[in-house]
């Protein structure tokens, strides 16, 4: 009789960009994310056995982000083993809160645990980035890193991969509104300019510096005003119906800042403390009702927790 | 008989840019800077009475950065008074370590003290920026802010002016080599592109995020590798003879990073601790001897001290 080992791992949904920190900053939403059950077996094959929660996600191992990331991990390790992966998706693909990263991080984390942790965090990020490449054509880590590590992550560099983890300020809360429309990552990328004025770039990295300072110093107002993004948001916000009204409503209700999550369509605001967060959530819901677009809202702290073993 | 009030103020020389933090980050060198003696009188005129240390600096009040900044301050305040300013310059103009900022900050700080501190730090920075505008055609604050406040300063935004002050990591030291050649600020500006690839901008703000993280966390290695500047340094370094050899020598001797100070020609390295700093200084001196360009070297901690009253 074969012995089989199995593990259940959760990895959170994540917000990337945080305004000025385009392509480099990300953080998890608390208690929202995908869960995988990974079972090791002796066949040399990686299989997706089940996907629940959302439809239209590939079951074929070479086309599913989670199994694809695991295949890349096994290629690197060169061992003769295989895994069955069942995915329970809570994050809708295309929502702009790292749906693919959530699945692929949970899967590689689970496999690494079952194999006795042969890989470092940075290596796991790189395998999960392969999944991102499959999903969007770009091997980004701005969702993958916070989904794995938790906290606020900063990608200083891709080559070599250099990730910084910042503990979230205690009272920082996120209110995220997900309009149920589809924005293709490719479309959101194509709308961006390839060249930008140097003076805009300087303006942006002044805000990035302010954002990182605000996070270390728990200066909430500084965090809010440093989210200002003069390059990406003015272009991408045109893809989100009712964006300006939603942002105005959030800011008027006391949000520190409000901008696009990832490539959209989700929009998030940050607030200091639960009371203000409730006001902001109410205002955002109210403002978006006028759009006649169905939406859902997540409200939570910024999670310190990344990928987590739920059950062995 | 008139009563005259007089004050003597020192403001340090400063390094701006710090590699990736082009136009937004700056810090003072310890014990190097200009000293002004400012005397209030009842004539409604601002005069430069003496300049020592370096020649070819305008004595005419409307053309001298220090008196010009004071004139702007008095215009704002609208009081009927005047000042005599004597400047003792220790910072050579055109060296890339904030010579004009040192003089103008010392002058406006002194006048503000004599008048009973009517202005905030931010307002003083703005007056001194007027001096910078006179000197270089651009109202920059990346030397002015650290010369006034001390520590490592970050300009999040110019409009409104938003300055962050970070306490320097305890063991961080600077070794600065000033080759005695002239680089006009305008020439150093003209060599820069007006447009840059978005991907280079993202790379740069990843490094800016790393730099600010490294400073808050006293992560010296992170500070060093985050100084990497993919936009400005590759262009401006061509204006500095022997730059590549100097940088290589500094890094081989253990420097955390090495790049251009301001618009050059000064080049600075950072090191952790006095012992390594001594090695780096030795290596930089040795490497630059081959250039047949006269030079001088400053080696110090990163000063927490900005403008300071020396004598009343």
Structure in words:
The structure is a homodimer of 312-residue chains. With 312 residues, the first copy, chain A, is α+β, with helices and mostly antiparallel strands. Chain A has two domains: 5-167 and 304-311, Ribosomal Protein S5, domain 2 (2-Layer Sandwich), CATH 3.30.230; 172-301, GHMP kinase, C-terminal domain (Alpha-Beta Plaits). Chain A has ten helices and twelve strands. The radius of gyration of chain A is 19 Å and the shape is globular. The two termini of chain A are 20 Å apart. Chain A binds chain B through residues 20-25, 154-157, 162, 164, 166, 192-198, 201-213, 216-217, 222, 225-226, 231, and chain B through 20-25, 154-157, 162, 164, 166, 192-198, 201-213, 216-217, 222, 225-226, 231.
Please specify the SSE layout and strand pairing.
Two copies of one chain form a homodimer.
Chain A: E1 5-16, E2 25-41, E3 46-52, H1 65-77, E4 82-88, H2 99-114, H3 121-136, H4 144-149, E5 152-158, E6 161-166, E7 172-179, H5 185-190, E8 195-197, H6 198-217, H7 220-226, H8 233-236, H9 243-252, E9 257-260, E10 267-272, H10 274-289, E11 295-301, E12 308-311
Parallel strand pairs in A: 3-4
Antiparallel strand pairs in A: 1-2, 1-12, 2-4, 2-5, 5-6, 7-10, 7-11, 9-10
């Amino acid at each position: 009789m074969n012995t089989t080992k199995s593990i259940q791992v959760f990895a959170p949904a994540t917000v990337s960009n945080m305004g000025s920190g385009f392509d480099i900053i990300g953080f998890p939403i608390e208690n929202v994310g995908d869960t995988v059950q990974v079972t090791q077996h002796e066949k040399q094959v990686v299989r997706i056995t089940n996907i629940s929660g959302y439809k239209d996600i590939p079951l074929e191992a070479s086309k599913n982000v989670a199994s694809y990331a695991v295949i890349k991990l096994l290629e690197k390790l060169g061992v003769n083993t295989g895994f069955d992966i069942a995915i329970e998706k809570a994050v809708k693909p295309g929502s702009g809160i790292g749906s693919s990263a959530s699945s692929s991080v949970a899967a590689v984390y689970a496999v690494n645990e079952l194999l006795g942790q042969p890989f470092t965090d940075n290596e796991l990020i790189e395998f999960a980035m392969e999944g991102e490449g499959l999903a969007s054509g770009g091997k980004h880590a701005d969702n993958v890193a916070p989904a794995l590590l938790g906290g606020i992550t900063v990608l200083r560099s891709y080559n070599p991969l250099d990730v910084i983890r910042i503990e979230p300020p205690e009272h920082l809360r996120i209110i995220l509104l997900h309009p149920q429309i589809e924005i293709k990552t490719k479309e959101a990328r194509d709308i961006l300019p390839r060249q930008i004025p140097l003076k805009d770039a300087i303006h942006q990295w002044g805000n990035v510096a302010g954002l990182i300072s605000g996070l270390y110093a728990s200066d909430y107002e500084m965090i809010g005003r440093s989210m200002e993004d003069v390059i990406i948001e003015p272009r991408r916000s045109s893809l989100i119906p009712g964006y300006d009204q939603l942002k105005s409503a959030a800011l008027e209700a006391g949000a520190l800042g409000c901008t696009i999550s990832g490539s959209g369509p989700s929009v998030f605001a940050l607030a200091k403390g639960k009371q203000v967060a409730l006001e902001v959530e109410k205002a955002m819901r109210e403002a978006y009702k006028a759009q006649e677009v169905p939406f859902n809202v997540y409200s939570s702290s910024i999670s310190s927790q990344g990928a987590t073993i739920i059950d062995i």
